[in-house]
What does this fold into?
Amino acid sequence: MREERRTKIIEQALASGRSLLTPQECVELLSLYGIPLPPSLLAKTSSEATEMAAKLGFPVVLKIASDDIVHKSDVGGVRVGINSKEELEMVYAEIMASVKKNCPGARIEGVLVQPMIKGVQEVIVGIKRDPSFGPVVLLGLGGVWVELLRDVSLRICPVARDDVLEMLKELKGYPLLNGYRGSKPVDLEALIDLTLKVSQLALDLPALSEMDLNPVMLQEQGKGCIAVDYRMIITKPEVD
Ligand code: ADP
Ligand code: MG
It folds into this structure.
């Protein structure tokens, strides 16, 4: 079942000439592997977004939904912590104005409405397919740790539980995950579990050339983790 479904998703995307999977396709593939995601509802108008926010419960997050925009926050396309209908209406208009100004010509589907997820730390879990080694999994702490300090750790797939733990311990920022100076220790077991699922997904999908779960929100020990942003790129695998 799972195999049929994932093959179908990839084949359809390849047949339509797309290399970037839609958010809906990503959600379906990630869910097939039990990777935890927040509910994410597509709204085409401000009033639809309000309805969806009411369904999910405030506070919510709004994100621009467009295949043409990769880094949503760089263009003012992500707003977090929206607490009411009035605030949402204002933020919706601000997002649309900002995106139109920064990305004129981008095709806009609407916005994604997600519940606000509170994390203790943000991390990145990624995949990149190497021509000789196959899929390589990447782990890093979010934000400046990756962007400024390039603090990441890499392994060739498949990885086992012990490999992932070792990857985490290699990170300079590892103490931040482990309750540094009174901060709450995060759910490392959940992160390890998610990383193992990502490794399996990459091995099962030869067409997957790149994937980013960025960020994965890590919650307190015992409370899990959840991937709030995802991007998957496919290319037709070469047959030899
Ligand atoms: P992009 O990477 O395209 O700019 P993201 O979806 O990663 O967009 O959102 C940017 C940032 O907003 C994230 O790094 C995270 O800090 C925050 N964020 C995104 N979604 C949520 C959410 N559901 N709950 C809480 N914070 C979020
Ligand atoms: Mg992101």
Remarks:
- The mean pLDDT is 95.
- Residues 2-36+118-234 form a domain with the D-amino Acid Aminotransferase; Chain A, domain 1 fold (CATH 3.30.470.20).
- The longest strand covers residues 208-218.
